[in-house]
């Protein structure tokens, strides 16, 4: 079989390999190898896996790479591409491991029932498939806000406060979902954004947004922790200043996902040397 492959690639690629010796040198075997090589060479000529093209293409799937280049967020470019071509196909499958590839189409194209996210498995774990219409519709409008404020690839995250805790928070205090409207508003001011963000985090850490700010909650959390055990500072609520920057960056990211370009220098970011 190895010799058969050598003959085929010699003929197909017009090259000579360093060895062309048969293990089995009987004339009948050589003739059969030559016949098989001719058939394989003919098939490859009709089904050329290496066409002369000037684009990047997957030999396995035939998918051709586009000319688009992600400037900042590659996930958003991938998702927008999937959404744009969805009407042309029975189904579109976005393959990856990043949760953004599920969250973004769920929030931006929840009516496209033919778009799916395939999370690649590892080892004995099989691939998983998710429909973008499967998420709880109660949070469909606020999903981008929840994803950004709880921490994503672009924004910072809160130590020990995963996305499940944020979901539980909004299930228990649905009135907090009103704060999401501020983050979805392209005309929102920094004052409203930072106030809304602080209200959510005050509630997350067990405080009352109506009567407390985050510095007060942080102070009481420290006192309670210090009285019982060794304090893990990372688990304390962030300061008000840190929360304001986090809220501004989260707002900027939500608006970016929605296609509204905002100046990052006005929303918590700065130039670095």
Structure description:
- Strands 1-2-3 form a 3-stranded mixed β-sheet, with helices on one face.
- The longest helix is centred in the N-terminal third of the chain and has 20 residues, at 27-46.
- By secondary structure, the protein is mainly α.
- Among the domains are: 74-131, no CATH class; 141-264, no CATH class.
- It has helices spanning 2-13, 27-46, 74-85, 100-108, 143-149, 163-172, 178-184, 190-204, 214-228, 240-257, and strands at residues 92-96, 115-119, 128-131.
- Helices cover 46% and strands 5% of the residues.
- Estimate the mean pLDDT confidence: 83
Alpha-beta content class:
mainly alpha
Distance between the termini: 59 Å
The count of strands amounts to: 3
State the major sheet.
3 strands, mixed
- Oligomeric state, counting identical vs distinct chains: single chain
What percent of residues adopt helix (DSSP H or I)? 40-55%
Poorly predicted sequence stretches spanning 5 or more consecutive residues: none
Give, in order, the helices and strands.
Answer: HHHEHEEHHHHHH
Content of β-strand: 5-15%
Strand order of the largest sheet: 1-2-3
What's the helix count? 10
Radius of gyration: 28 Å
Shape by Cα distribution: elongated
């Amino acid at each position: 079989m190895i010799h058969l492959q050598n003959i085929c690639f010699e003929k197909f690629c017009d090259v000579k390999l360093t060895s062309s010796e048969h293990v089995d040198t009987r004339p009948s075997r050589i003739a059969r190898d030559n016949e098989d090589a001719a058939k394989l060479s003919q098939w490859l000529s009709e089904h050329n896996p290496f066409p002369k093209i000037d684009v990047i293409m997957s030999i396995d799937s035939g998918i051709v790479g586009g000319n688009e280049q992600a400037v900042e967020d590659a996930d958003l470019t991938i998702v927008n591409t999937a959404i744009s071509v969805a009407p042309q196909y029975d189904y579109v499958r976005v393959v990856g491991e990043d949760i953004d590839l599920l969250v973004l189409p769920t929030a931006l194209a929840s009516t496209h029932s033919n778009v799916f996210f395939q999370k690649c498995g590892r080892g004995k774990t099989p691939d998983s498939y998710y429909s973008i219409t499967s998420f709880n519709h109660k949070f469909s409008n606020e999903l981008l806000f929840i994803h950004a404020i709880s921490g994503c690839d672009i924004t910072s995250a809160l130590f020990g406060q995963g996305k499940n805790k944020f979901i539980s928070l909004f299930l228990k205090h649905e009135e907090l979902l009103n704060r999401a409207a501020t983050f979805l508003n392209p005309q929102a001011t920094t004052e409203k954004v930072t106030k809304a963000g602080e209200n959510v985090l005050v509630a997350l850490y067990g405080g009352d947004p109506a009567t407390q700010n985050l510095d007060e909650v942080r102070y009481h959390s420290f006192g309670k922790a210090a009285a019982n055990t060794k304090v893990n500072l990372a688990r304390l609520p962030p300061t008000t200043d840190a929360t304001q920057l986090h809220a501004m960056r989260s707002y900027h990211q939500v608006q970016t996902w929605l296609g509204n370009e905002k100046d990052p220098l006005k929303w918590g970011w700065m130039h670095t040397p």
